Amino acid sequence: MKKIFTGLCITSMLWMASPAEAATTQIKIDDVVVKTDTAPEQKNNRTMVPLRVISENLGAQVDWKDSKITLSMNQTTVSLNVNNQTVIKNDKKEQLDVKPYIKNNRTYVPLRFIAETFGSQVDYKQGTVSIATKPLLIENEKIKALQYEYHMTMGGIIQEIKGNAYHNAIYKIFQEEKGDKVEAPKEYYWHFNLDEPGSYYKLGQYDFMTHDNNSIKQFDIYSLNGPFPEELLEGYPKVLLHDVSENSWYIFSEQAVNSIQQLINNASENGFSTVISNTVA
To answer: Copper amine oxidase-like N-terminal domain: from which residue to which, for each copy (predicted)?
Structure first.
């Protein structure tokens, strides 16, 4: 009798749970299934996601202070507070259907509200939330993917990075962080050349690809070869940026290189990067 009663209780609980609360929601951004170490949740028929999904894959900048979260992108700013339904969007108060909250050391925020606030289109169908963000435009061409190539001792690897937020962020670094224009170095290669002081080796090649799989813009990053005595390297910048499309060279910074690499790492961790060629022996 006790077993029958227990079974009836479990069945009743399943009946009482709404389909939205029971469903496991999958998130797709720009047709890429987002990988996340913490699953999205449904609260009051609203999809709540870890803050990282927003900050890394939609391109919003995040400022966290005490329990206040400020998200900003372009000319739009949204401020939320944990366990508070009131938000401030561009200095105007609005009410959320669900409060942001913390669970298992993750901060959950409402996906649709934030995505639509930052100009993305959101669609829900059969357990999948699909978000379409604004593509990067170069010379009025929509960018489909970024191909990142780097070489190792015995071969090279090419990664294809999707996701408009990543394309926009990386392209912005190239455009805004390049320094003074300089002459092309006398010696530059894909590999190390330890025989020629002042020579450079290519750290990486970045091709912004259109929908017909053509590279419309290419940037190469070069690093100064070493080690050599300091007096032989005096006057040589440590990092150079080559705008291959315009055949122009610029001083670049190690900080900018690290920022680009962090974006590529985030793309890989979140499912937006795939290896399309690997010739490493």
So the answer is: 29-131
